[in-house]
């Protein structure tokens, strides 16, 4: 049975309340740091955009690879029509088999897209929960919380990943010029 409140040790109660208060402050600090990240790399919108870019890049790459394999197969069929040497025909068969294997391997893009979409949905779920907690706690209160940013190395400060907007991306020629 529970003891009456008068019988509780006031030091123990004070200790428990102090621990609970520290925990609540820590939760508030975590909510603030998630809802107001120190840098763009940790914003939910940026993360979702990055995941969308991964899906698009793998889709584009797969389509390019499959189109090239199909073009190769057309060239193989043209060569097959004019060649009679069994050794050359065997090489064409090998090229055709490689093309089919390449096209089948490109199915990774569908699976990758499905998995990344699941991660994006989970990220959106977490974002929605953080937004709800921020609103419950009060945006003004969360805004008052001091956020400690992560220390980055000089190299990390320079790395932002590929540009999501292709019109703002550095061209391969510009990158090559850095090494000349």
SSE blueprint:
Elements: H1 10-35, H2 44-82, H3 86-105, H4 108-137, H5 139-144, H6 154-158, H7 172-178
Description:
The protein is mostly helical and about 180 residues long. It has a domain of about 100 residues. Helices cover about 75% and strands about 0% of the residues. It contains 7 helices and no strands. The protein is elongated, with a radius of gyration of 29 Å. The relative contact order is 0.11. The mean pLDDT is about 80.
Radius of gyration over all CA atoms, rounded = 29 Å
> Would you report the number of β strands?
0
Proportion of strand residues: under 5%
Number of helical regions: 7
Uncertain runs are: none
Helix content: over 70%
Shape descriptor: elongated
Structural class: mainly alpha
* Mean of residue pLDDT values: 80
Largest sheet composition: none
First-to-last CA distance: 80 Å
**What series of H and E elements makes up the topology?**
HHHHHHH
Output the keywords.
180 residues; mainly alpha; 74% helix
Please sum up the structure shown.
This protein has helices at residues 10-35, 44-82, 86-105, 108-137, 139-144, 154-158, 172-178. By secondary structure, the protein is mainly α.
